[in-house]
Amino acid sequence: MKTQPQRRTEVHRIALLCGTLGCALVWGLVELLALQRQRYHQWRQRHETPAHR
């Protein structure tokens, strides 16, 4: 039974690490944008005058 060379395994580990970190960053950015959107809508409702309704 052949084993994979150490170098190829290391490349896979690095790719998996980069993919995981990339997904975590994208997920965090999506959550941040959703939070900011919610806060903006709450702020707009508080500052809305009756003339705009």
Protein described:
The protein has 53 residues and is mostly helical. The chain has 1 helix and no strands. It has one helix at 6-47. The chain is rod-shaped, with a radius of gyration of 23 Å.
- Order of helical and strand elements: H
Structural class: mainly alpha
| Gross geometry | rod-shaped
Report the β-strand fraction as a percent range: under 5%
Q: Unreliable segments (pLDDT under 50, ≥5 consecutive)?
A: none
Query: What Rg do the Cα atoms give?
Result: 23 Å
Write the layout of secondary structure elements.
Blueprint: H1 6-47
In short:
This protein is mainly α and 53 residues long.
Keywords:
53 residues, mainly alpha
